[in-house]
Design a protein that fits this description.
The complex is a heterodimer of chains A (about 70) and B (about 575). Chain A has about 70 residues and is an all-alpha fold. Chain A has one domain (about 10-65). Chain A has two helices and no strands. In chain A, helix 1 runs antiparallel to helix 2 (about 45-65). Chain B is an all-alpha fold and about 575 residues long. Chain B has one domain: Up-down Bundle (Sodium/glucose cotransporter), CATH 1.20.1730. In chain B, helix 6 runs antiparallel to helix 25 (about 550-570). Chain B starts with a helix and ends with a helix. Mean pLDDT of chain B is about 90; it is low at about 1-15. The chains are: A mainly alpha (about 70), B mainly alpha (about 575).
Chain lengths: ~70, ~575
Amino acid sequence: MHGSGISIWFFIGVSLLVNGVLITGAGIWQVFNPPANPVVLFYLHANVWWGAVLAVIGLLYCFKFAPGRQS
Amino acid sequence: MMAALALFETMFVPSRLVHLSSVDIAIIAFYFVLVLAIGFYLKSRANTAEDFFMAGREMTAWIAGLSFLSANLGSLELMGWAAAAYQYGILATHWYWIGAIPAMLFLGLVMMPFYYISKTHSVPGYLKLRFGESSRTLSSVSFAFMTVLMSGINMYSMALVMKVVLGWDIHFSIWVSSITVAVYVALGGLRSAIFNEVLQFILIWAGALLIPILGLIEAGGWSNLKLQIAHNASSEYTHLWSTLGTSTGNPMGIHWTGIVFGLGFVISFGYWTTDFLVVQRVLTAKDLRAAKMAPIIGAAFKMMVPFIVILPGLLALAVLPFKLVGETQAVATGGHSYNEVLPLMLARYCGPGLLGLGITALIAGFMSGMAGNVSAFTTVWTYDIYRALIKKDGSDQHYVNMGRWCTIVGVLISVGTAYLVMSFASIMDYVQALFSFFIAPLFGTVVLGMLWKRATSAGGFLGLLAGTLSSIGMWAWVKVDPSAIRYVAMSPSATDMAANMYRALWSWIVCVLVTVAVSYVTTPKTDAELNGLVYGVTVMPHEEQVAFYHRPVFWAIVVSIVFVILNLLLW
């Protein structure tokens, strides 16, 4: 789906970027405000690094498949 | 935004498995906005029938392949097989490996060329070309109505899951999800369904992948996990094949012949090669090579799905501090049932944000399955029933309009079915059984049609009819006399799951025998009439010269090797 409109991969990039930013933000907030009943393995702060991974992948997809950049 | 969140909160009821934060709700809301935006964006690209029903036949192998898999990867599938893994152990993996991979590779390498070259719009459409109108009518009518009824059952089941997990009102879940699917499929047609399925596929992985990763960290790795399962349940739970020598030696009560021939051959090949819900996605490929590659890409990802479905079920056996029980016992004792294993694991590891993404993955899985059902129903209704039997000379625009209305009507029938099931729960078992009656015989008819040029129109139709009736007959026999299961499933202790597999096997054999017998006493079509439809008399289009690593057969071999290695590792 290239060359005739917005690629599906761009939509996926937007989705991963927005979700990644929200998840990382929530994770960072929890680092400084630990919950009373933390999840198992809370000390790994999965939402911080998993959210960051999603955001970076999303950003790459948004850039690579941005409308106007497609071949 | 805050008002919307407040409205969302009012939908909750006190009892729920997990509690969502504002970030979780924002992630779920963003998902709904995005899928609707895709539908509105693609409306302008669904003007012709070819656009609306076949997505313009311009999909790349990756998009067709991921969509092919996503249409199958519903949330009930995710939750159901995670529950089965907790209940039966790693045996549940057979439904993802031997119960899918060989059939998907066979579809890509052997069957796809005939579907693609014949330029059919649907599987019943292929039957029309190969065997005539009667076979098409039988398969299209049964498929259309069973599909839309199944969609309703899935809708109700998902609403029930949302009620248990999140405390959402059941009517709210049914209407919000069905209206969303109706809007984006009616606007953008199959292209919109496919775009959203690929998005949903990515979200399912993004939302579910963290559970096995964190679970393995908590369990101390695979070796420790096996030791803990052996301690908490049994060492049989972590063996894929070695316990299948007898039907009493494994938690599922099944013999290896049932897995290999019933599941691995008939059910799997029937579903993955002839169920139009999944085959439709591959028919949208832009060329023959993409059409052959799409199921192979799907197979590669299908092989990995147990990591996010089966492994969480196994991990729950090791790490949960309480024991899960059957649904009836859970209701009686107030405990948790097997079916809650995936949400329980989600709640165990996922904090704010991640929980929202995990729930979004479940909703996405449900909506991709529903959109798949509705778009397949719309195509079969419009092409194989409405245009074939009711209005043959409509304009292209007329059929597009019919497709849009049919999408809405299909969703409404699904909603109606959901409410019917809510009142009469036993309907669910009957409709699921009805659906299974058609799959195995249909595979017999299609595969003989593609591979045996002597098969005649009368043979194809009567074989399909006989196979279907024999399946119904066996099911009714066991219903009336439960002890008959010793004959149907070759074991008095066989579970329903085992009985389904053997019933499929027998009905397929009946279909094939009747087709062969009738074909030998009736007149076949000429070779010229069968060109493009049957192996041996079809001139295959010359495939472009590409490097070996771009060829479907190379990747099919790679997937096959990995498939064998994985089975041996977990023997």
